[in-house]
Fold this sequence. Notes:
mainly alpha, single chain, about 80% helix
Amino acid sequence: MAFWLDLMFGNPIGLLSMIVIFSTLGIISYLMWMFVVKSAPVK
Length: 43
């Protein structure tokens, strides 16, 4: 666990890759949420 924490937050490249991964997951979840909302039947 300490190895992964050092790899992720010990250098700028690891921190940048974590930012990219989490922002990508956020964008994907936002797009999926918009797809679900827009494809819901109109009441």
